[in-house]
Specification:
By secondary structure, this protein is an alpha+beta fold. It has one domain. It has three helices and three strands. The C terminus is likely disordered. The structure holds zinc ion. The site of zinc ion has 8 residues, from helix 3.
Length: 143
């Protein structure tokens, strides 16, 4: 078969199939990101409303990719509430959110008493509704 007759027979078919493939991939990516955002919301509602379970949880990359840039936490000792900016953590992006809890501590307690007070995770959020001194793990940059 000559190149010309092959192109006449299959060219349109191939181009149309490639366009359908691209469109299907785009829809699949959109659906995947909807799923991840919903997973972040489910995890947050579970943590905030029922205190867990924390596992399984989204990863840092998934949360940040879905626009959930902050992990809101609360000190077990003084109840001070704060948020950690997930984009600033020196952790591999495949780290699951629940694994962060053990490394977080309340800065207010640490400053006042020189001990490390543990925090518990409340929810992931796009913009934290807390202000004031934020919690920061030891791994944070510029600290
Ligand atoms: Zn505290």
């Amino acid at each position: 078969m000559s190149a010309r007759s092959r192109d006449r027979i299959f060219g349109d078919k191939l181009r149309a199939a490639k366009i359908r493939l691209e469109s299907a991939r785009r829809q699949s990516r959109d659906a995947e990101s909807d799923i991840v955002a919903a997973e972040c919301e489910v995890w947050s509602a579970q943590m905030e409303g029922y205190g867990g379970p924390a596992q399984p949880s989204p990863t840092i990359a998934q949360a940040v990719g879905a626009g959930f840039f902050f992990l809101e936490v609360k000190c077990r000792r003084c109840n001070h509430q704060g948020a950690v900016d997930l984009r600033r953590l020196r952790r591999h992006e495949s780290t699951e959110i629940w694994r962060l809890e053990a490394s977080l501590s309340c800065e207010r307690c640490r400053a006042g008493h020189r001990w490390k007070a543990e925090v518990h995770m409340i929810r992931l959020s796009r913009a934290p509704d807390t202000s004031g001194p934020w919690y920061a793990p030891d791994e944070l940059d510029g600290h």
